[in-house]
Batch of 2 targets.
Target 1
Amino acid sequence: AAVPRQRLYKCNECERSFGFLSNLKRHLLIHKRQRNLHLKLETQESGSVVPSNSEDGAHVRPLKCTDCDRRFMNLCNLRRHQTIHSKRTKSNSKVKAIHAAASNASGSATLPRK
């Protein structure tokens, strides 16, 4: 059995701790987003002007999917999400090919492989 890694990197804002500094840094973004949201809500309640890019969350999640309205903090999450769209496109083209083959009167068409 593998020996569990010591969690040397502790968050100063909550009780969480991490084995890698990179994981702590990623976790700290949660607290930063919470502070930004809290500040945005306070600003709206006071009647002050809210920065224009905060309306759609662009200041929190700057990367937008080109196929839908989802936004992401980092590029790897955006790319992983975009595979959903490419899988849908592939499955739709398979369905169209199956329908075309089935409607072919001569019956000489072959069905696509899985």
Target 2
Amino acid sequence: RLIYKLAGKEFTDNRLSSEEWKKFKPSTPKGQLPVLEVDGKMMCESLAITRYAARETGLYGSNSWEAAVCDMVRDTVQQIYEAIIHNMFVATTDEEKAQG
């Protein structure tokens, strides 16, 4: 969503209630969210969606080096997110939390 907003591209942002998700889930590629639907085709996995959206909106760089820098930034954000989730929901000791 953020990439499409930043690029000024129109898109439909469907948010599902629990009941709507139960009905929609079997139609998704892997039974999970998020999904991106383009021309009747569905894609899942947030990193794949992010990279696709960046390419399609011209925000993925103009050459291989710039694309790799985009990947580096996105991968760093993912690592930070995973460390936060680990510390909030998995780690139980201070030592585990320090390891991230």
